[in-house]
Design brief:
alpha+beta; GMP Synthetase, Chain A, domain 3; three-stranded mixed sheet
């Protein structure tokens, strides 16, 4: 008897269209909630928070929101404050997103900007210093 072939599906290829759509809807809802300044947490007072990405699980029950404070700031305190306000955000998402159930939200610090700056600094440090006379500003190469 031959073994049945299993369809490989798109699970190993990354998120589905459904996950991506839900992630964008949740990201917009979180961004709107953060812009409304409905939170009284002192750690978020005067801090503009950007939601850079939301990744949703295949079953759409869990979502991870990656956030960063604009203009710097203590990212760990901001994430801790957002975690304390999870219930508030879940309620706002429930009103803004059409879905059978609202995903559980997890907040994570988006450190990709810090990492990009670190890599940029390493690359600049590894480049040789320009020598006198190597200036091409006169257009002659």
């Amino acid at each position: 008897m031959a073994r049945p072939r299993h369809h490989q599906g798109s699970r190993s290829l990354g998120p589905t269209q459904r996950q991506l759509r839900m992630g964008e809807e949740v990201r917009h809802a979180l961004s709107d909630a953060l812009a409304s300044h409905g939170l009284a947490d002192p750690a978020l007072a005067g801090v503009a928070v950007t939601v850079t990405e939301v990744r949703v699980s295949p079953d759409l029950r869990n979502a991870t929101a990656f956030v960063t404070p604009l203009g710097g700031g203590d990212i760990d305190n901001v994430v801790a404050a957002l975690k304390r306000a999870r219930g508030y955000f879940r309620g706002r998402i429930g009103h803004a997103v059409e879905a059978r159930s609202v995903p559980e939200i997890r907040f994570e610090a988006d450190r990709s900007f810090e990492e990009a700056a670190r890599v940029g600094a390493l690359l600049r440090a590894s480049l040789p210093e320009p020598r006198d006379g190597d200036d091409d500003s006169d257009g002659n190469a």
